[in-house]
Amino acid sequence: MSTKKNNFEEQLNSLEKIVTNLENGNVPLEDALKEFQEGVKISRELDKKLTSAEETVAKLIDSDGTEYKLDPNNAAAPED
């Protein structure tokens, strides 16, 4: 299963299927280990994508093009 070409939603669906299969417990041990490893890989890729998206959203751009990062504790006030 190649996850690099998949978009976020496809990767999330793949991860959900893996979790469901593992929770059901009807997967042979070797297959379960492979699925678990694939799930960890997908989870890390999704985490990177979410972190990148959060960083993009957390920027405030002035009318002159100056970017400011938002203070995560106060979304109304940019960091100095």
Care to describe what's here?
With 80 residues, the chain is α+β, with helices and mostly antiparallel strands. The protein is 57% helix and 16% strand. The chain has two helices and three strands; from the N terminus they run ααβββ. A three-stranded antiparallel sheet has the order 1-2-3. α1 (8-24) runs antiparallel to α2. The N and C termini lie far apart (44 Å).
Structural class determined from secondary elements? alpha+beta
Large-scale geometry: rod-shaped
Strand content: 15-25%
Radius of gyration: 19 Å
The SSE string, one letter per element, is: HHEEE
How many DSSP H or I helices?
Answer: 2
Mean pLDDT: 83
Residue stretches low in confidence (pLDDT < 50, at least 5 long) are none
The assembly state of the depicted protein chains is single chain
How many runs of DSSP E, i.e. beta strands? 3
User: What is the distance, rounded to the nearest whole angstrom, between the alpha carbons of the first and last residues?
Assistant: 44 Å
Biggest beta sheet summary: 3 strands, antiparallel
Q: Helical content, roughly?
A: 55-70%
Order of strands, main sheet, comes to 1-2-3
